[in-house]
C-alpha cells in the first residue's frame, strides 16, 4: 500500500488540512500505516498536481488561510482501482523475534528488559484502542446504528485490539521463557 491510498481513505472519511490529516495519522490510521508530517505534505502536493485531490483555501481569523484537501473524482477512481487489486498476505519482519532467536548465542536473560519494554508499549496501545472503542463504538455517545464507514472502522479497530492482545500474550510467554532460561544452571 502506498501512503497515497491511506491519505485518500482518510480524506474520504473527512476532508481536512495537511495538519489535520497528520493529526489523524497520529491518532488512528497511523497505527496501521505510519507517515511523518513531511511525507504527508509531500504526497499531498504530488496528489494535487496529479489531480487526485482538490484544494480550497479556507480563511481563518488572525491566522494565514489554510488549505483544505478533499478527494477529487480521479482520486476516487484511483482508490477504487486499488481496492479491487489483489494483494499478497504481508510477511512479518519482526526484529524482536530475531533477537530472541539470537539470544541462544548469548545470555537469554539479557533480553528481559527489552521484552518488558515491548510488553509495556503494546499494553499502552491496547488501552488506547479500547478507550477509542468505548468512546466511538460502545460508549453512551456511540451511535445506535453505524453507517458503512463506521462499521468498517470498527472492524479494523477490533483487528488492532485482537493483534495487541495476541502480541501481549506472546510477549508474556517470551518473558516466562527468558526468565526460566536465565535461571537454568
UniProtKB/TrEMBL annotation:
This is PadR family transcriptional regulator. Residues 92-179 form the Transcription regulator PadR C-terminal domain. Pfam families: PadR, Vir_act_alpha_C. PANTHER family: TRANSCRIPTIONAL REGULATOR YQJI, TRANSCRIPTIONAL REGULATORY PROTEIN. Residues 7-81 form the Transcription regulator PadR N-terminal domain. It comes from Streptomyces sioyaensis. InterPro entries: Tscrpt_reg_PadR_C, Tscrpt_reg_PadR_N, WH-like_DNA-bd_sf, WH_DNA-bd_sf.
Amino acid at each position: 500500500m502506498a501512503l497515497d491510498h491511506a491519505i485518500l481513505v482518510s480524506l474520504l472519511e473527512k476532508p481536512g488540512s495537511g495538519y489535520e490529516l497528520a493529526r489523524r495519522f497520529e491518532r488512528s490510521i497511523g497505527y496501521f500505516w505510519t507517515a511523518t508530517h513531511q511525507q504527508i505534505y509531500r504526497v499531498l502536493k504530488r496528489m494535487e498536481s496529479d489531480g487526485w485531490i482538490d484544494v480550497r483555501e479556507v480563511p481563518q481569523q488572525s491566522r494565514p488561510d489554510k488549505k483544505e484537501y478533499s478527494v477529487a473524482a480521479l482520486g476516487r477512481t484511483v482508490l477504487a482501482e486499488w481496492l479491487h487489486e489483489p494483494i499478497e498476505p504481508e510477511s512479518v519482519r519482526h526484529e524482536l523475534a530475531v533477537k530472541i532467536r539470537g539470544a541462544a548465542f548469548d545470555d537469554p536473560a539479557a533480553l528481559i528488559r527489552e521484552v518488558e519494554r515491548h510488553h509495556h508499549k503494546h499494553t499502552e496501545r491496547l488501552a488506547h484502542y479500547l478507550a477509542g472503542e468505548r468512546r466511538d463504538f460502545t460508549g453512551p455517545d456511540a451511535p445506535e446504528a453505524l453507517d458503512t464507514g463506521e462499521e468498517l472502522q470498527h472492524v479494523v479497530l477490533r483487528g488492532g485490539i485482537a493483534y495487541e492482545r495476541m502480541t501481549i500474550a506472546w510477549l508474556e510467554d517470551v518473558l516466562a521463557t527468558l526468565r526460566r532460561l536465565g535461571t537454568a544452571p
